[in-house]
Fold:
Amino acid sequence: MSAVAPPMEGATGTSGRTAAVAWRGEVDASCAWPVMAFFGSAIFWLLAGSVLALLASIKMHTPGFLAGAEWLTFGRVRPAHLNAVIYGWASMAGVGVLLWLQARLARVRLPLQGLLIVGCALWNLGVVGGILSILTGSSTGVEWLEFPYPWSFLFAGVFAVVMAASMMMFTGRRVRTLYVSQWYLLGAVLWFPFLYVMANALIHGNLARGVVQAAANWWFGHNVLGLWFTPIGIATLYYILPKILGRPIYSYYLSLLGFWTLALFYNFAGTHHLIGGPLPAWFITVGIVGSIMMFIPVTIVGLNHHMTMKGYFHLLKASPSLRFIVFGGMAYTVVSYQGSIEALRRVNEVTHFTHYTVGHAHLGVYGFFTMVMFGAIYYIMPRLTGREWSSPRLIKVHFWGAAVGILAYWIGLTWGGFVEGLMMNDPNVPFLDVMRYTIPFLWSRSFAGILMTVGHLAFAVLAWRMFFPRGERVLGAALFSGRGRPGVPLVHEGGEA
Amino acid sequence: MNVVYLLIWGSVIVFGATAVYGLLWAIRTGQMQDFSRGALSIFDEEEPVGLITDAFPRRNGSEARSEDER
Structure:
């Protein structure tokens, strides 16, 4: 790994201006191949996940749809959708953003590029293998860990490479001060692989059976969100939002307080998924307390985000990345408050096992994390390829499809799911009446899914043109510095500044 | 069965302990001392405070311009 930046926060020091100008372009160039590989794969899985999602959604209100093929039954398509978007789309986009962000924050070239590209290929192999196993009926039946266990070795191996690259950048960093995003990324990259290996050993190693398996399962399932996606998403928010606005975060002190409170509380929250289950009461109460304590970090992030944006909301019209990122930040606040309240026993006895929970999950993984990843990819890809996005119109189709889609999805299922829960708790209402009541809301979900998929198609076309451009290279507004900026010579991999 | 409870809560405590260790490390190495330096560490003279770094591409895709419309 060769460092490119002057020592310390060099640009403000006395070191030469040429070095200060060159480092960012060279860091971005070093990320190009591995990060683009992760992004390209992620977008493929986004499309595959959308198709599986639509199949599952349509089957909920039209059970006869494609009912003849056993590998397309609901019980297989639904976990295939979950795993395609979690391990395919969200994790691969997250790893891509994490690698780029850490290289930027540390001001070093991305290490282990070759290994990371191999890792990306192996990860794809794992997702393909796992999803085929699910569709052919070999799912383990443990939610979030449906892939048969041999595939988990593959993922664990790739995690090790990502972890190594991340630690090399951290220890070799040229900036002594750790920016708040760096803390979040360190959390994600150190906690999650450990959690993944631990949960696989417990569940697939037959250590945890029965009720205890459910406990291990939800401790893992919730921490995928809390210790993997959330820190990557928040790290991205804290970097890209100030960078787009050209304005430091409103309160840096609060941002650090937010990180440390999240680090202390979030990993206790998982057992709230088992409210009403046959587990010791204290076991669940710990999860509820952890969930309620999350009000602190969430309020901090929301407040900081809003105060940084204050006075700059007009830029939402001008910047595509900002639209997605701000939408994602707002969804984070809403979904987290909703989640904390949902963890209370009195609320949970209504919402548990209804569509309400499904709406909540999608607001988190889609409204928050996926939207932040979209925004990040819009910001990062032009800087990696030195090429501008080809069509502002397609970006708008993507944004409005995704934004209106997820809002319609969430409102429909939150409303329908809550009433469904109230009806199910009333012994005088026949079960079939409850199911009939939910059908219009299930249709609204399929409609919302179509809107989101249209957005994804627009995104895929834009990304396709990034990978396989036609005609001359387009230089544009997103390229302010480093590669591709007029007047600044391109810095090639391995080249001198 | 108790072994599993022990493993789960053990891991939870290990996570908590790494967080506490990180926090102590941060305080010891002065990460909590100068907040403005932390907040400004992502800016430099090439992309200084005040420069807006993202905008919609223009339809004809011509060259870069800085979008200073504040």
Chain A touches chain B through 74 residues (CB under 8 Å).
